[in-house]
Structure formats: C-alpha cells, structure tokens
Amino acid sequence: MSYLFKYYSKQYDKFMKKFRLDKSEIIIRILKNISGLEILDIGGGTGTLARELISLGAKVTILDPEINMTKIAKEKSNEIKIINGYSNNIKLRDSSIDIIVMRDSFHHIMKKEETLKECKRVLKKDGKILIYEFDKKSFIGKLIFIFETLCFERIKMLSIDEMQELIYRYFKNGEISKISNYEYIYLGNK
Ligand SMILES: C[S@@+](CC[C@H](N)C(=O)[O-])C[C@H]1O[C@@H](n2cnc3c(N)ncnc32)[C@H](O)[C@@H]1O
Is the CB of 109 under 6 A from ligand 1? Predict the structure, then answer.
C-alpha cells in the first residue's frame, strides 16, 4: 500500500504541473504514429499521459494498484481502461499489447525483474517498451528520492548504467537517451 498515492491523489496533478514533471510531448514524439494501437500504461496513475494518447487515437489501459489515482484517470476519460493490479502479475493475454509505457513509475516498482518478464510476455512480436525515469545520480533525481522517501514511499531509482544493465537482460534491442540532466528514456523492442 502506498501512503503517498492513496492520500495525495487529489494533489498529484497540481504538484506535477507546478514542478513541470508532467511533460508528455517527448514521449508522444518518440512513439510516433499510435493511432489504433493497444497501449499499456503501467503505473499510469491519474491518467494525464493516457488521456493524451487516447486523443491521438490509441486504445489505452492503465495498470495501477492505487484506486484513488485511477478514479481520477477515469474521470479524465471514460475511454481509459483500468486494471487495478501490480506490474509483476499483469492480467492480460500473451502478445496482446503494441506499446508499454512507464512514465515515472519504474522506480516505484520493487519487483523490477518480474515486471520486465511480464512486459515481454504481454507485448506483441516487435512491440515497443518505453520507460521514462529520473537518473538517480542527478541532483533532481536525489531530491525526488528524498522527497518520496520522506512521504514513506518505497522506491528504487536506477542510474542510467544500472538501467542499461537490468533492461538488457530482457530487452536486447533498445537504447537509453538522456533527455535532460536529470531524466532519461529507454526505448526498446521485444
Ligand atoms: C509517480 S506516479 C506516476 C503516474 C503517471 N505515470 C504519471 O506520469 O503521471 C507512480 C504510479 O505508479 C504506481 N505504482 C506503484 N507501484 C506499482 C506497481 N507495482 N505496478 C503498477 N503501478 C505501480 C503508483 O500507484 C502510482 O500511481
């Protein structure tokens, strides 16, 4: 159970907007043409990204354990499908998803290896996986780590090298791009 996302779900969007941590443009630019595609947004929370992906014609399912967060997502767009559950046990068929996105959620996931295994299972052949994260070695990454830890959140943030080492075990085709001095994106293929 997450204290942070259960009790601060109503403040979440305002906080992200204030600190400009809710940028979707770069993710949308990287994913390119998504119309008609099945996208799984793991840890999709309040659905800010999901709503934008839907407006571009994608079919989006959010997988997130926190009902208070996903209730807000559903209010944003009734078209967002919700699965309240955990990423290490995804209740979806094998090879049913075109794209998996995880924005700012991978460091909240403790069972990272099981999650990547599940991602590989549910992705279609040539399906894509995009992970947006904060670099644990950066100043902002460290601030986020301290803030979330003080909010009693269990997190495990990775440096770019650690992410590279971990993800390569499951997705051999892909690369990490630094998008600022504190953020990076991994984009890979099944
Ligand atoms: C910082 S929020 C990010 C929300 C959204 N992706 C965004 O960019 O606004 C992290 C989300 O990850 C979810 N989460 C934490 N552990 C998870 C897990 N094991 N599986 C799926 N989602 C998880 C939390 O409930 C929370 O909604």
Answer: yes
Which residues of the chain are modeled with pLDDT < 70?
A: 1
**Binding site membership of 103 for ligand 1 (Cβ less than 6 Å):** yes
So where are the chain's domains? Answer: 3-189
Query: Residue 149 belongs to what H/E stretch?
Result: helix 139-150
**Superfamily of segment(s) 3-189:** Vaccinia Virus protein VP39 (3.40.50.150)
**123 strand-pairing partners:** 97
Residue 107 CB–ligand 1 contact under 6 Å: no
Cα of 65 vs centre of ligand 1, distance in Å, is 8
User: Tens digits of per-residue pLDDT, 134-174?
Assistant: 999 999 999 999 999 998 889 999 999 999 999 999 998 99
DSSP state of 136: T
- Per-residue model confidence (pLDDT) at position 4: 82
